[in-house]
Amino acid sequence: MYHFLRTGACRSSAAFQQKLHSGLLVALCCSEDTLMITFQSHHRALSRIPCYTIIPYVGTISEQLEPGTLIVLRGHVPSDSDRFQVDLQCGSSVKPRADVAFHFNPRFRRANCIVCNTLKNEKWGWEEITYDMPFKKEKSFEIVIMVLKDKFQVAVNGKHTLIYAHRISLEKIDTLGIYGKVIIHSVGFSFSSVQKSGVSQFPSNRGDISKIVPRTVYTKSKGSPANHTLTCAKILPTDCLSKTLPFVARLNSSMGPGRTVVIKGEVNTNAKGFAVDLLSGKSKDIALHLNPRLNVKAFVRNSFLQQSWGEEERNITCFPFSPGMYFEMIIYCDVREFKVAVNGVHSLEYRHRFKDLSDIDTLEIDGDIHLLEVRSW
Questions:
Q1: CA 49, CA 44: separation in Å to the nearest integer?
Q2: 15-45: per-residue pLDDT in tens?
Q3: DSSP secondary structure string, 17-86?
Q4: Hey, is 333 helix, strand or coil?
Q5: Are 361 and 251 in contact (CB under 8 A)?
Q6: Is pLDDT of 152 > 90?
Q7: What is the pLDDT of residues 173-229, one digit of tens each?
Q8: Strand, helix or coil at 357?
Q9: What letters, b where the CB count within 10 A reaches 16 and e where it falls short, cover 215-239?
Q10: CA-CA distance, 197 to 67, in Å (whole number)?
Q11: Where are the alpha helices (DSSP H) in 6-137?
Q12: Rounded to an integer, what distance in angstroms lies between the CA atom of residue 68 and that of residue 264?
């Protein structure tokens, strides 16, 4: 789930944990100026290949790749590297050469770029080239490949890098190959099928899910309102979400320090932007307006108080959204501010302008996205 992130220890006292997938443990750690999300291995959730893997490496993938599976590679680019590649293969045959469903090939000669392709029946298809190069010689890296229903989504060092549509069925992929001039410290797999069902597979950190009393969330679209049930440990099922935006939902508990909202979706391929608002249902004041604008790569934040917009905030290290990408946005409410992370990477803080946090009880989402799941706790 929260996959594009750096591993590390949570040192803040203001931390809470939620088990993910079939055992990944995520910790949301709130410090003075950042929201940090970290993985810890739990049982067999993140199986690993031993450190300092010998290259070339060709190994069988222990389980079937499914939507939600994560492949995490950590390594180092040597100073003399001209290229390396990570291949998701259909077997390990050399003659004839096995099909390669996903060929991920950073190149350092001439123009630095990443070339992606598919090898089928010993013939390469058309190349898809990314010139926004995240790799540097003599620098360490972390590659996270997330398997989605219709594509692979890749992030490098916590930043979204590219999307590659499936050309070969996932069921045929059973081998990982790593070749070229690269040093690999570790490879990890997290096998999960989070997109098979809209109902959460997550165990609750508050006890047995069957003992949790459901709370009602009110949602409406352009048609008539509908009632849905949402608990702190359950995701609102995909098939229950409003099929058309805007999406409006009453939070299961009003906002306050420690409260969290998680939004999962896919950005439309021709998206110009979308908006996520946390507001007071009573006064209609918008306490937090998040407005990613893809056409200008701006992540605008603001508040609408007493019938008037305030001053926009736009400063951000890097714009976290791209057309067609899958995203998971976490909004965490702290005493002084909201903290926002996208795909596991801290993006921004927004100081509270609306002071009555307990009056914030409504979530609205609209714009150029396909909404998949929403939850809060």
A1: 12
A2: 333 333 333 333 344 444 444 343 333 333 4
A3: EEEETTTEEEEEEE-SS-EEEEEE--TTSEEEEPSSB-SSEEEE-SS---TT-EEEEEEE--TT--BEEE
A4: strand
A5: yes
A6: yes
A7: 999 999 999 999 999 998 864 444 332 322 222 222 222 233 333 333 334 333 333
A8: helix
A9: eebebeeeeeeeebebbbbbbbebe
A10: 11
A11: none
A12: 13
Indicate the pTM of the whole model.
Answer: 0.68
Largest CA distance in the chain: 71
Give the type of residue at 58: V
Amino acid letter at 108? F
C-alpha closest to that of 121 among 84, 183, 172: 172
Burial of 50 (0-12, 13-18, 19+ CB in 10 A): exposed
Indicate if the pLDDT at residue 98 is higher than 80.
Answer: yes
Q: CA distances (Å), 80 to each of 24, 73, 74, 133, 215, in order?
A: 36, 20, 18, 17, 59
Please give the structure tokens belonging to residue 172: 């045929």
pLDDT band, very low/low/confident/very high, at 269 (cuts 50, 70, 90): very high
Give yes or no for a cis peptide into 96 (omega within 30° of 0).
Answer: yes
Rounded Cα distance, 226 and 215, in Å? 14
1 burial type by CB count under 10 A (0-12 exposed, 13-18 middle, 19+ buried): buried
Distance from the Cα of residue 224 to its chain's centroid: 31
Tokens for 167, please give them. 């050309």
pLDDT at 363: 95
Q: Domains in the chain, ordered, with CATH?
A: 26-190 (2.60.120.200), 247-376 (2.60.120.200)
What's the CA angle centered on 163, arms 134 and 265, to 5 degrees? Answer: 115
